[in-house]
Amino acid sequence: MSALSDTSTGAAPAVLPGDPRYADLARGWNARFVGTPEAVRLPVVPEQVVDAVQDAVSTGRRIAVRSGGHCFEDFVADPAVRVVLDMSLLTDIRWDPEMGAVEIQAGTQLGEVNRTLFKRWGVALPGGTCPSVGVGGHISGGGWGPLSRLYGSVVDHLYAVETVVVDAGGTARAVIATREDGDPARDLWWAHTGAGGGNFGVVTRYWFRTPGASAVDPAAALPRPPAALRVAQLLWPWAMLTEDSFTRLLRNHARWHEANSAPGSPYAGMYSVIGATPRENNGVVIMSIQFDGTRSDTQELLRAYTDALTEGTGVEPVVLEQRELPWLHTTSWPGVSDRADHTRRAKFKSAYLRTGLSDAQIGAVYRSLTRPDYANMTAGIMLAAYGGAVNTVASDATAMPQRDSVLRLIFATEWDQPDEDDKHLTWIREFYRDVFAATGGVPAPGPGQDGCHINYADADVADPEWNTSGVPWHTLYFGDNYARLREAKARWDPLDVFRHTLSVRPPDAGPDTAEKE
User: Fold this and answer.
1) Which residues pair with 385 in a beta bridge?
2) Which residues make Cβ contacts (< 8 Å) with residue 427, sequence separation at least 6?
3) Does the pLDDT value for residue 517 go beyond 50?
4) Do the beta carbons of residue 46 and residue 90 sit within 8 Å?
5) Nearest to 433 by CA among 509, 514, 361, 330
6) pLDDT, tens digit, for every residue of 240-249?
7) 511 pLDDT exceeds 60?
8) CA–CA separation, 328 and 122 (whole Å)
9) Among candidates 137, 36, 72, 77, which has minimal Cα distance to 425?
10) Is the backbone of residue 314 left (phi > 0), alpha (psi -120 to 50) or beta?
11) Angle 386-434-427 from CA coordinates, rounded to 5°
12) Quick one: DSSP state of residue 404?
C-alpha cells in the first residue's frame, strides 16, 4: 500500500511492497535488474528530497536515485539498496529570472525538454536521442546528441545544479552550485559535468544558460536549432557486402570523420550514425543522417559525404528515404530517435574514438557480426558522429575529459528471456574484447581511442577478466580528472552515502577499487 497520499507539503509519498505500483517502480529500463527496496519514495517538490534522504540516512538504509530509469547496470536495483528515490514526478521547466537561466527539474524526460524549450522559446539543448531518458543522469554523465557537433555537450550549457548532499555528521541539506568562479561550491557543479549520477548526492534541478548568452531573455539564453533538417537513411543488406567491401565502408567512414570533425567545419551541422546488426536472420548495415537544411549547399555536401562513404566499395546503398523535416519533428524521427523498449534485458558498451577503427579492429567487428551461431536483430554496433564544438572545450573544464574524439562507438544487445543471458552477454563481451584486443580488451586511452562514456555504464571494465589492460576503470571513464572528482567526493559525500559499482571512490578507499558490498 502507499504510505502517503500525493502531497506537496508533507513527506514524499512512499510506495511499499504490495502496492500495485511497486512492481513498476522497483525496476528501470533494463529488465535484467529488478530491485527489492523496502520503499520507493516519490517526491513531488524538491524540498521533499531533503527529508527523504535524511530519513534513509538516519535509519541506516542505503539509498539510490532514479530519474528516467535508463541505467544500464544494477546501480539502482542493487539488492543492498533499501530506498529508491524516484524523481520522475519532478518535471517542471521554467525561466528563473533570479538565476538568469532555464530551470529543469531532475525527473524531466528529454522528449519534454525538447518540446518545451522549443515551443516556449525556440531554443534547444544538445541532448540525446531517447525521449524517455531523464535529465537527472543524462546531464550529470555528460550527455550528447545530434546537435553536439554544433553546440557541444549538454554540460557545456550547464549554469547551476541543486544537489541534496549529506555531511560528515549525517545531515542532509540542499546545495546550489554554479559555474561562477567565485562560487565556493563550484567543485560540486564541476563534478556534475561528467561524473555520472549516484556519486555526490541527489540532483533535484539544473539551470541552463550558454556561456556568454543573455541572462534576461530565455529566447537568447540557449542555442537555436536549425529550423529544418535534411534526413536520409541508407541501407546495405549483408548480401551486398563482402569482408573487403565492409572494411572499405567503415574505413571510408572513419577517414571522412577524421577529416571533417573540426569545430566550424561545413559539416558541423551534420549528425550521422552507421549501424550494423548480425548477418544471420536478415541483419543489415544502415546509416541515418540528419543535416542542417537551412544551408544553401546542404544537398551538395550530403552528396559528397555519401560519395566518400561508398568510394571503392563496389556497392551502392539502397536509399530508404530522403526528405526535409522541421527540427522538432526530427527529434522523433525513427532514423535517430531511440524509443526504448522497457521490457527487455540488455547490455551496452561504449568507446570514444580519436581516429577510426584500424583494419584489424574492423576485421574483429566483421567476424563478430557474421558469426553463424548468433542471430539477433536488436544487437550490433553504432558509430555516431562526434567532435565539432564538443572539442572546443578543455579536457579539465568539465568532469568529462574526452574532448578530442571524432566518433562514438556503441555496442549493444537486447533480448527477452533470462535463460539466454549467458548467450548474449558472452557475445557482446567477446565482441568488445576482440575489437580492443591490442589494448587489453578495453579502449585504453591512446592515439586512436580515449576510454568510455559513463552514461553507457559497463561494470565489465572494472573486472580483470575482461579488462587486462592495466588501465583502471576510472581512467577509462574520467581520465586525469579522477583525482579532482575524489576531492569533491570527500567534501560533498564524506560518508559515501551515494555509491555504486562505478561510483567515484572516497580518497581512503584505495586508488583503483570499484565499490563492492
Assistant:
1) 407
2) 368, 371, 374, 376, 379, 413
3) no
4) yes
5) 361
6) 999 999 999 9
7) no
8) 10
9) 72
10) left
11) 95
12) S
Measure the CA–CA gap between 264 and 222, rounded to whole angstroms. Answer: 18
Predicted confidence at residue 281, as pLDDT, reads 82
- Sheet with 39-41: list strands edge to edge: 14-15, 39-41, 83-86, 63-66
Number of neighbouring beta carbons within 10 Å of residue 414 = 19
In terms of Cα–Cα distance, which of 390, 270, 384, 269 is closest to 338?
A: 384
pLDDT band at 508 (very low <50, low <70, confident <90, very high): confident
Q: With a threshold of 0.90, does the pTM exceed it?
A: yes
Distance CA 169, CA 400 (A): 30
User: With contact defined as beta carbons under 8 Å apart, do 417 and 391 qualify?
Assistant: no
Query: Percentage of residues in the chain with pLDDT exceeding 70?
Result: 96
Rg of the Cα atoms in the chain: 22
Question: In this predicted structure, what is the pLDDT of residue 46?
Answer: 94
- Chain Cα centroid distance, residue 110: 12
3-state secondary structure 428-493: HHHHHHHHCHHHCCCCCCCCCECCCCHHHCCHHHHCCCCCCCCCCHHHHHHHHHHHHHHHHHHHHC
Distances in whole angstroms, Cα of residue 439 to Cα of each of 52, 443, 448: 44, 7, 11
Cell of 449: 581511442
Q: Which grid coordinates are listed for 368?
A: 563478430
Q: All 3 cell numbers of residue 131? A: 525521449
CB half-sphere exposure, 218, CA atoms < 13 A: 22
C-alpha cell at 486: 575524489
pLDDT digits (tens, 9 = 90+) for 384-425: 999 999 999 999 999 999 999 999 999 999 999 999 999 999
With cut-offs at 50, 70 and 90, classify the pLDDT of residue 340.
low
